[in-house]
Amino acid sequence: MPKVTVHRKAHFNAAHRLHRDDWDDAKNKEIFGKCNNPNFHGHNYKLIVSVTGEIDPETGYVIDLKILKDIIKSKVEDDFDHKNLNIEVEDFKNLNPTVENISVVIYNRIKAHLDPKLKLEITLYETPRNFVTYKA
Ligand SMILES: Nc1nc2c(c(=O)[nH]1)N=C([C@H](O)[C@H](O)COP(=O)(O)OP(=O)(O)OP(=O)(O)O)CN2
Ligand SMILES: [Zn+2]
C-alpha cells in the first residue's frame, strides 16, 4: 500500500522562561536575553502533528483524524494551554522549555498513543518566524 502523511493542526497559548538554576543571573541573561525575564512571557504556539503510514484498505485511513485530534487535545492542549510551562507542567520541572524541548515532549506524549507502525513528526511554531521539526 502507498504510504501517506496526514497532518493535524493545533494550538496552545503558554507562558515560559528560559533559565538554568545552575547558572548565575548574569550568565542566564547573557545566554537567554529577554527570554530569561523572571516574570515569564508568553507565546501562541502553533502545532502540526504529522503521521505517516500505509492506507488501511478497508477504511482508506492512515489514522482516523478524530482519534488523532483527541490524542492531541488530551495529551497536549489540555495540559499546556493557558499554563505556565515551567511551573505547571511536570515535564519542564527540570527541562528548559525551549521550542526544541517542547517539541520532543509533545512527540513522546503523542507517540505513546499511536500504533507503533506509524511514523510521527512534530512541527512547532513558537513565533510566526521561529519553528522546529522533530521526528525520532
Ligand atoms: N533555539 C532557540 N532559540 C530561542 C528560543 C528557543 O526556544 N530555541 N526561544 C527564544 C524565545 O523564547 C522566543 O522564541 C524568541 O522570541 P523573539 O526573539 O521575540 O522571536 P520573534 O520571532 O518574535 O522575533 P522577531 O525577530 O522580532 O520576529 C529565543 N531563542
Ligand atoms: Zn519565549
TrEMBL record:
Catalytic activity, EC: 4.-.-.-
Protein keywords: Lyase, Metal-binding, Queuosine biosynthesis, Zinc
Binding annotation for Zn(2+): 16, 41, 43
Active-site residue list: 35 (proton acceptor), 82 (charge relay system), 126 (charge relay system)
An example molecular function term from Gene Ontology annotations: 6-carboxytetrahydropterin synthase activity
GO BP term, pick one: tRNA queuosine(34) biosynthetic process
Pathway listed: Purine metabolism; 7-cyano-7-deazaguanine biosynthesis
Protein name, UniProt field: 6-carboxy-5,6,7,8-tetrahydropterin synthase
Organism: Psychroflexus halocasei
